[in-house]
Amino acid sequence: MAKSRASIFGEVEQGPKLDIGAFAPKKTTDKTAPPAEQVREVSLAAQFRSREPQVTKSQQKPARAPRIHRTGRNVQFNVKASQETVDAIYSITDAHPGWVLGYTLERAVAALKRELESQT
């Protein structure tokens, strides 16, 4: 007898209907399973490499507060800059209440224009 695949669009043509009632989420935890701490100790003793990412202190940066302001500026300007330059822009903006990054950039461009005009 030739076996054919079950159609995913219709009912099973031959044989009994498929009962999937046994495939349900567990309602209780497994009482025979060892505690997570014991599993961790055994894996460390066996020198099992964890798949968890290792975060170094240099990768941990303090999170900045979100900067959401409605200013009418609607063009995004992305540049690559050194970390020192980015930190300086943020510190200047943070030092002046009410300033946003776009305003700091506008002031910096205006100051640079004045400086260049005075050199000529």
Question: Topology, pairings included?
Answer:
Elements: H1 36-45, H2 83-95, H3 101-119
Helix pairs in contact: 2-3
Describe the structure in brief.
This protein is mostly helical. The chain is built from three helices and no strands.
Structure notes:
- This protein has 120 residues and is mostly helical.
- It has a domain at 75-120.
- Helices cover 35% and strands 0% of the residues.
- The protein has helices at residues 36-45, 83-95, 101-119.
- Helix 2 crosses helix 3 (101-119).
- The termini are far apart.
- The relative contact order is 0.05.
Average pLDDT reading: 84
> Largest beta sheet, briefly?
none
Number of helical segments with 4 or more residues: 3
Uncertain parts: none
Global geometry: elongated
Helical residue percent? 25-40%
Order of helices and strands: HHH
Radius of gyration: 31 Å
Distance between the first and last residues' Cα: 95 Å
Work out the strand percent: under 5%
List the defining traits of the structure above.
single chain; 120 residues; mainly alpha; 3 helices; elongated
